[in-house]
Amino acid sequence: MSKKLTGASGTPIADNQNSRSAGPRGPVLIDDFHLIEKLAHFNRENIPERRVHAKGAGAHGTFTVTKDISKYTSAKLFDTIGKKTPILSRFSTVGGERGSADTARDPRGFSLKFYTEEGNWDIVGNNTPVFFIRDAIKFPDFIHTQKRVPQTNLKDPNMMWDFFSLSPEALHQVTILFSDRGIPDGFRFMHGYGSHTYSLINKDGVRTWVKWHFRTQQGIKNLDPKKAAELDGSNPDYATEDLFNAIEKGDYPKWGVYIQIMTEEQAKNHKDNPFDVTKVWSQREFPLHEVGFFELNRNPENYFAEIEQAAFAPSNVIPGTGLSPDKMLQGRVFAYADAQRYRIGTNYQQLPINAPKCPYANYQRDGAMRFDSNGGSSLNYEPNSDPNAPKQTNDPNPLFPADLSGAAGIYDNRTDGDYYSYPAALFKLMNADQKELLINNIAESLQSVKKETVERVLAHFVKIDPEYGNGIAKKLNITLK
User: Per the record, which residues fall in region Disordered (predicted)?
Assistant: First the structure.
């Protein structure tokens, strides 16, 4: 027996095929509440798309602990080898709109939500270990260069290269972006990174700085630019389709979970700022330590409810985990949660996909789309004298005390002028074919860029490595002085 069709309020709908009208030829009457409800809801079905990472795919899975890291963290999800924790993943391109192609040359977002017994813990990273900028105050400027020109509403490489040429801290990420890794072959065949420096805190209150690495067990695969351009037109949802179909047929993708570890003392004496997200930590000096693995084994039943409404934010930390002084991370701690409040609503954390799996209680009340009991008759302030009301735990705070020094002020992040050694080391690691592909990709992107901008950019690439800069110049028929 089929279900009875009703409106959103539960009212039975007698006719879902015809509008109520004055006679068979109309006009339609405004008191047709079912028509009005359907049209009004349809008009509002699109929530604002993410300003960045708008196009993406995701799936459910499990994280499994394989190594004991209790000496570094008191977080309960790591407390037993073999322990499993449900997770949600989302992969995305960064600059494109929701209808853009999965095969664009772009970093890939790599976000994980762990539904732990102590609350939700999010790592919101990318498929690259570094980023274009060091300070979140430059994030809106950078993203504007990846979007559309205000006058023409067209994308223009002049904006991007003008910004890069005047922001040399971006060169490390630029070199990765225009390498073979700039267009992964779907989402299953790429590594992921927390990118920022995070922290772990053990039961004795000792903090350790860490970098999170998620290494694909499917192997690395990247797309040739010509193949990517072909897919752009023939199947713009290539990566989304690949992930869904693999999980649907039981070919569950897996990633190994690892951390790099740096003590507070090592951080103080490190030759570079260990919280600078434009640089990496040497794996020779700070090797990878295995933590576990995660497997994606369940597709969403409804994309909108489980992926589009999924809200990731690095402010979601749990006891035993924490943040760092990384200026980009500090900005994201505010910006991501704030973006979700705008995009989905002030009560976005109540949505089933975002709600913790563990018990939770707070004094938040009211706001649009509050769809639980809104606290019922309980008190909405604290401290209070009700013995049954939520009280603070006095457990160690995830916002671990930080040693602050120096006068409050605005400090130039470019006093560290080492823009070239890290991309130079990366360039030297490439074989001849990888170097040729990198040089071709950059030269092609620079074809329509203004001459003065090209000259500024080439001056940077030559400083990274003469072979690098001169190779690009040769492709552009430019003779460098």
Answer: 1-26, 372-399
